[in-house]
Specification:
This protein has 579 residues and is α+β, with helices and mostly antiparallel strands. The chain contains 25 helices and 16 strands. The protein folds into 5 domains: 87 residues, Zinc finger, CHC2-typedomain (DNA Primase, Chain A, Alpha-Beta Complex); 123 residues, DNA primase, catalytic core, N-terminal domain (DNA primase DNAg catalytic core, N-terminal domain); 107 residues, Dna Topoisomerase Vi A Subunit, Chain: A, domain 2 (3-Layer(aba) Sandwich); 63 residues, Up-down Bundle (Pheromone ER-1); 133 residues, DNAb Helicase, Chain A.
């Protein structure tokens, strides 16, 4: 199966699944009028502010702002990518996901997943037949139960064990090569992994996509990962994430360590919320995956120079993703220790105490920068500002960003302007955030009603009266009316998913969360009034642009008179027939 998923299938899928059923399997919902309510699964709250609308097929949290369709919920709650969320919902709905093969390059063959699953089974079977590998795991303190849970196996020392077992024909050999399981040398093709403890790497749906191997002998690299393939991209995967999410319905925090053995050992001691990067520095994709799984990430690194460098890379990847409710901390272990050795030597309680004392990102950030400059001099403090400001400007707008800039000002003893990429000063943004909600202008109301009830497009005013209209947002309105008129029975969720790549999508997402009160008749009337208001604005805009009446010719005078009459008529409509 290859290519992009057609929009028509997305529309059909969202028409077949019920968002209430999808969410209720994961979050207890309670009927509240026409909608359902719950405590939000994406942030801590005591009073329910999470609502699910069967009519819109849309969820929204008034507390943290999370919102979206059933697809968006699966992405946020389960930590899935868009395609994986679509495939999971399609499976539940009994649908086969089609592909637009002409629109994109082929996607990975299902045969790769099956082959890697077979490889995982074979490695596990080989472990049971290798006293040497079993003895190694026992020496490392791994129990049989935790080894089975993580699918730990063993690659024999021979050069072609896996090839002989799975590469039974040319097609299978090619699949093994595509999966990164074979190497090429002067002597020909041979198994990539030999005489190694094998750790399967799963994607977010639990499918094996690669392997990591720990050498038993000292004649090669200690750790070896699968190369990047069409299934496996190490900058976008985390070892143990699937099992960590599976261990708890909702992770409060997630611990990032450096090695496979650390993840497995900590799981054996009750820390099932651990993941590891795969031989690479923490990336932005890693950070986003972490925060989809939990609101707090704790990075655990060695206290040496390499560990500190890795921690700073993790901080840089994390800063742009620290939206409201998310936080990160850093734990540096004593020299010569790793999580595996430390938890075995000191026990679970001692390790839990270390986690509780992990340093907040804000403290680590400023400790690192202030320690590298002379804070007693103006020059040193100016250098601090120069180094810190570009990093702080990566933080999304909000309280945390404001407080980080305030802390920088306190340390620098000087005001620091937070004005990146043309953004207004922090004081103005703070004032704006305290102001009432977005004004309900005629344009925004018209768009909000269309997004929440696409069938209203059939009652939209004839576009001829808006010829040449240049009101802000009108082109979006025109496009939305045309779109909704073609599919008046679609839901809010279907519309927004189909407009996923549209520049106005984020704005329409916000309008979809507006609470538009009233029955169908009143809502339709409010939409018509909003459109009437749009035409009135357009007429007044045209009248303002016309020359003074003394400078008008006969035709322009006639046009102005017609505009004035139409203006009075529209005002009368808005006032119930009274001009």
């Amino acid at each position: 199966m290859g290519g992009l998923i057609p929009d028509s299938f997305i529309e059909e899928l969202l028409g077949r699944v019920d968002i209430v059923e999808v969410i209720e399997r994961r979050v207890p919902l309670k009927k509240a009028g026409r909608e359902y309510q719950a405590r939000c699964p994406f942030h801590d709250e005591k009073t329910p502010s999470f609502t699910v609308s069967p009519q819109k097929q849309f969820y929204h949290c008034f507390g943290c702002g999370a919102h979206g369709s059933a697809i968006g919920f699966m992405m946020n709650y389960e930590g899935l990518e868009f395609v994986d969320a679509v495939e999971e919902l399609a499976r539940l709905a009994g649908l086969q996901v089609p592909r637009d093969t002409a629109a994109a390059a082929p996607r990975p063959s299902a045969g790769l997943y099956e082959l890697l699953a077979e490889a995982g089974d074979w490695y596990q079977a080989q472990l049971k037949q290798s006293p040497q590998a079993i003895q190694y795991l026992k020496q490392r303190g791994l129990s049989g139960e935790v080894a089975a849970r993580f699918g730990v196996g063993y690659a024999p020392a021979g050069w072609d064990g896996l090839m002989r077992q799975l590469g039974t024909d040319d097609q299978r050999l090619k699949l093994l090569q595509r999966a990164g399981m074979l190497s090429q040398g002067k002597g020909g093709t041979y198994d990539k992994f030999r005489d190694r403890i094998m750790f399967p790497i799963h994607d977010r749906r639990g499918r094996i996509i690669a392997f990591g191997g720990r050498a038993l002998a000292d004649d090669g690299p200690k750790y070896l990962n699968s190369p990047e393939t069409e299934l496996f991209h190490k900058g976008r995967e985390l070892y143990g994430l699937y099992l960590a999410r599976k261990s708890q319905a909702k992770l409060e925090q997630i611990l990032v360590v450096e090695g496979y053995m650390d993840v497995v050992a900590l799981a054996q001691f009750g820390f099932g919320n651990c993941v590891a990067t795969l031989g690479t520095a923490t990336t932005g994709d890693h950070a986003e995956l972490l925060f989809r799984a939990a609101d707090e990430a704790i990075y655990c690194f060695d206290g040496d120079q390499a560990g500190r460098k890795a921690a700073w890379r993790a901080l840089e990847a994390t800063l742009p993703r620290l939206r409201e409710g998310r936080q990160a901390r850093f734990l540096f272990l004593p020299e010569g220790e790793d999580p595996d050795s430390l938890v075995r030597r000191q026990g679970s309680e001692a390790f839990q105490a270390l986690l509780a004392d992990a340093q907040p990102l804000s403290e680590y950030f400023f400790d690192q920068l202030t320690g590298a400059v002379d804070m007693s001099s103006i020059d040193g403090r100016a250098r601090l500002v120069g180094q810190a400001k570009p990093h702080l400007e990566q933080i999304p707008p909000g309280v945390f960003r404001d407080m980080m800039f305030s802390r920088l000002e306190s340390l620098a003893r000087h005001k620091v302007d937070d004005q990146a990429a043309g953004r207004p000063p922090r004081e103005l943004r703070s004032a704006a955030s305290r102001a009432p909600g977005t004004p309900r202008t005629a344009m925004r109301l018209a768009l909000a009603h269309l997004v929440q009830n696409p069938s209203l497009a059939s009652g939209a005013r004839n576009m001829d009266v808006f010829e040449g209209c240049d009101l802000p947002g009108f082109e979006i309105y025109r496009e939305l009316v045309d779109f909704c008129a073609k599919s008046p029975n679609m839901t809010t969720a279907q519309l927004l998913e189909l407009w996923h790549d549209h520049p106005a999508q984020s704005h329409l997402n916000k309008l979809a969360t507006w609470d538009l009160q009233g029955d169908e008749e009143n809502l339709a009337r409010e939409f018509r009034d909003a459109v009437t208001g749009l035409e009135l604005q357009w007429i007044e805009s045209r009248m303002e642009k016309m020359p003074k009446i003394v400078d008008l010719g006969p035709e322009d005078r006639q046009q102005l008179l017609a505009l004035q009459q139409r203006r009075q008529q529209l005002i009368g409509e808005l006032h119930g027939g009274e001009p």
